[in-house]
Amino acid sequence: MFPHDRELLRCDRCALMEDVTHTGMLITCRDPDLGTDTGLRFVKIAEGSFRCSACDQTVHETLSDDARE
């Protein structure tokens, strides 16, 4: 289950992105197969930083409006 404690991640290099299913499960997918889980996961490497399992790009978490206030 995705706790919604951060924004969903997206890798700018390979376009892997997180999504949440209607049952609340966190998955990763790409266009045009939105909703089809690749089985890959972003790996947390530091506070606010993740590694893309598909291409090893470092992806930084985007702060939500709530976190900025």
Can you characterise this structure?
By secondary structure, this protein is mainly beta. It has one domain (1-63). Helix content is 6%, strand content 26%. The protein is built from one helix and five strands. It has one helix at 65-68; strands at residues 17-20, 26-29, 43-46, 49-51, 58-60. The strands form two sheets. Strands 3-4-5 form a three-stranded antiparallel β-sheet, with no helix packed on it. It has a two-stranded antiparallel sheet with strand order 1-2. The chain is globular, with a radius of gyration of 12 Å. The model has no long low-confidence stretch (mean pLDDT 88).
Portion in helices: under 10%
Largest sheet: 3 strands, antiparallel
**Amino- and carboxy-terminal Cα gap:** 26 Å
> How large, in whole angstroms, is the Cα Rg?
12 Å
Broad structural category = mainly beta
Alpha plus pi helix count = 1
Give average pLDDT, whole number.
88
Tell me the total number of β-strands. 5
Strand order of the largest sheet: 3-4-5
Query: Segments where pLDDT lies below 50 for 5+ residues?
Result: none
Number of spatially distinct domains: 1
Q: What fraction of the residues are assigned to beta strands by DSSP? A: 25-35%
Basic shape? globular
Order of helices and strands: EEEEEH
